[in-house]
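Q: Given only this backbone (318 positions), what sequence would you predict?
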């Protein structure tokens, strides 16, 4: 399976740096998962048609907009590829007996993730060599933000923390059922084009900061909720800190040049799942942008999250 065509050296360096910053000890025996099970929202999704909620790559010899799902990987694909695991939603080499499963759905909130876990347990189990990824909360945070200022800041921050604790409950549920869990904090959407536009459109320069506060409250609830989980069952991935670092130091992440605007042109692709390398605001390399649309990360963002995920799994004492 082809991996990303650009930035391989940068990704390797980034993985080393991210490992140093995020901790984790050397496992006694290397953990080699037999299947990857992805729960969450559209950040972890590949549709049955091979579409993703980022910039979709077009097949070099395709016609009629045929996609190449093995390029511009989302983060769970990048993680799976490091362990030789492939999702059936993107299996261009027609490999057989794929065990990996994808339950992520677009627009999912934490409550929907709980239903995804229930769906899995109704038909299957978790075993010690299952690597289970959980990423959700972005849609909870955005929904809470849309209630502001009609609802007060303190009330919304409390609700964000409660949502984080609900995600933590699902982490414990999966871990205690036998799976090895990699759970991600919510990306800091306070740095997104959406947040920047909110500052400008409302005339309130504190809007982006409040979105970051909601993200932080959610992530704090998640951290508190999993504090009693042992490292041999759960690894925490600090995606919020990664996004903050990418926004502040873009040149360190594949020499990005734009961290404030979206690379997908909404006039050409009304939704990010329809965005391709032919529907960008300018001809060129989508990896030079941090954001695909107003709230979803570019392939470069996914590449670095995937590198972080791989580092956390390899160094966590599962």
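A: Predicted residues:
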């Amino acid at each position: 399976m082809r991996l990303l065509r650009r930035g391989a050296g940068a990704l390797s360096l980034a993985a080393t740096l991210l490992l140093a910053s995020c901790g984790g000890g050397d496992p006694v025996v290397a953990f080699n998962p037999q299947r990857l099970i992805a729960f969450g929202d559209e950040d972890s999704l590949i549709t049955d048609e091979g579409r993703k909620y980022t910039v979709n790559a077009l097949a070099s010899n395709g016609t009629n907009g045929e996609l190449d799902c093995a390029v511009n990987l989302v983060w769970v694909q990048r993680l799976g590829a490091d362990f030789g695991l492939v999702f059936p939603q993107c299996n261009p080499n027609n490999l057989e007996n794929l065990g990996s499963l994808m339950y992520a759905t677009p627009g999912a909130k934490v409550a929907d993730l709980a239903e995804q876990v229930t769906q899995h347990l109704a038909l299957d189990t978790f075993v010690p060599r299952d690597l289970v990824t959980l990423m959700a909360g972005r849609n909870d945070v955005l929904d809470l933000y849309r209630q502001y200022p009609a609802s007060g800041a303190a009330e919304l921050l409390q609700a964000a923390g409660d949502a984080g604790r609900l995600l933590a409950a699902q982490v414990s549920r999966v871990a205690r059922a036998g799976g090895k869990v990699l759970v991600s904090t919510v990306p800091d959407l306070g740095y997104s084009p959406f947040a920047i536009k909110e500052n400008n459109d409302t005339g309130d320069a504190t809007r982006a900061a409040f979105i970051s506060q909601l993200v932080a409250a959610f992530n704090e609830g998640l951290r508190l909720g999993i504090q009693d989980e042992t490292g041999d069952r759960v690894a925490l991935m600090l995606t919020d800190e990664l996004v903050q670092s990418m926004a502040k130091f873009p040149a360190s992440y594949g020499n990005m040049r734009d961290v404030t605007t979206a690379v997908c042109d909404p006039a050409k692709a009304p939704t990010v799942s329809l965005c391709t390398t032919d529907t960008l605001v300018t001809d060129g390399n989508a990896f030079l942008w941090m954001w695909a649309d107003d709230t979803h990360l570019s392939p470069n963002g996914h590449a670095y999250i995937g590198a972080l995920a791989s580092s956390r799994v390899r160094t966590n004492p599962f």
